[in-house]
Amino acid sequence: MASVAVFDHTGAEVGTADLNDKVFGAEFKNALVHQVVVAYQNNLRQGNAETKTRKDVRGGGAKPFRQKGTGNARRGSSREPVMRGGGTVFGPHKRSYYTPVPLKMKRNALCCVLSDRVRNEQMRVLRALTVEAPRTKPMAEMLGKFAPGTGRTLIVTEETSGALWRSVRNLPKVDVVTAADVNALDIMRAARVLVEEGAVRKLEERLS
After folding, report:
1. Which of 80, 91, 112, 157 would bridge 51 by S-S if both were Cys, CB 3.0 to 4.6 A apart?
2. Burial of 9 (0-12, 13-18, 19+ CB in 10 A)
3. What pLDDT, in 10s, does the model give residues 117-156?
4. What is the pLDDT of residue 10?
């Protein structure tokens, strides 16, 4: 069982936390993570793209010009795909991109990416982030101590906090998610992950 440092909101180290190796010490399986992340991305797609085929376009009943003598190719309808305003051939149509993923694969992939962030020192464990009132500036200053740079930052909380969410919603590239809802795609998108100490225990209960 590995140990990591625990920090407070000022950036000072205030203790250590033991991490369950089954959750935070798993081997990274590239094929598994790729399959799960692609499935999550597919499930975010709306699939609303729609084009009209030749039968859906209005008009086209009359022959646009006579058969011979104009120097043009022969056309029987103004709604042919090669005509301006005509139908579309093999265009996109509404469809569902939903890709089912077994629960065991989701959990294993999440363990893989969490373990990868721990090994690469891209995850920090924080004492409880108590936000009494939504204020952006103090939150930005705190994140600057833990997550300098231009990459995306993910904050994983133990419970839902409306004040915390309102404090970071105007900060670019900062996301907040609870330990019950975080998935492999959320972790993969983030360059740095800040996890509340209580959220670590929630993750271990959920994944071990």
Report:
1. 91
2. middle
3. 999 999 999 988 888 888 899 888 888 888 766 789 999 9
4. 82
Same domain, 28 and 120: yes
Q: What is the pTM of this model?
A: 0.85
* Residues contacting 140, CB < 8 A, separation 6+: 171
- Residues 6+ positions from 166 with CB-CB distance below 8 Å: 134
147 with 199, same domain: the answer is yes
Residue 30, phi-psi category: left (phi > 0), alpha (psi -120 to 50), beta (remainder): alpha
- Total domains in the chain come to 2
The Cα–Cα gap between 115 and 24 comes to 4
Residue 92, SS3? Answer: coil
